[in-house]
What we know:
mainly alpha
Amino acid sequence: MDAMPPRPSPASSGSMATPSISRPSLSATGSLHTPTPSSSSSSSERLFTPFKEMISGGEGSRTAGTASAGLVAMKDILEAVDTLPFVKYLASVGVQLLQYVIEMQITNDMFRNLAFRAKDVIVAVARSCDGLQSMAVQLESDLRQLTSTMDNILSFATEKASRGTLRKLWNKSEDAAMVKALDKQLTHAFHIFQIQSDVTSRRQQELMMKQLAELSVSPPIP
């Protein structure tokens, strides 16, 4: 009778039935041979867009959409026939600021918020001046101050866009302080314009009421 083949030892049979789990090792190219569950999940995070961003378009998409809508509003102001020259200039500055946001792909940045606030202020000013053929002297002076503030914001944006990567990192804290100062300056200038605009509107209303009252007086009976 032929001899029976030797039975495999428990160790060898175990290794054949259930492959041993080895720690992930890096190859020469740096890729993982046997990823663990944690590494595979992190890999999927890199490969797949989060569901929230898939349905909302992501922060970058929302920013670009808001900036694009703002550009349409600015161009409408520029193309309006009855827009005052000062307001048209503000709209041209707003166009440049929003173009910086789009071209530089700014998403989570204080400057992006400042540019959007500037756009909102320009739209509000344009609505306040809608239909005006001329402007009161004091109101024009306040609008000049607002224009100067917009120029400062545009100068900061131009300088920021021209920087290299390292310089952007070095100036991060200084930029935050500058944006806060410009935002405060913008808010102050707009509040002054708004107050003066309200005063001017009230004066115009009083003048109109006075003229209507004079017109409604019955002529004396001969």
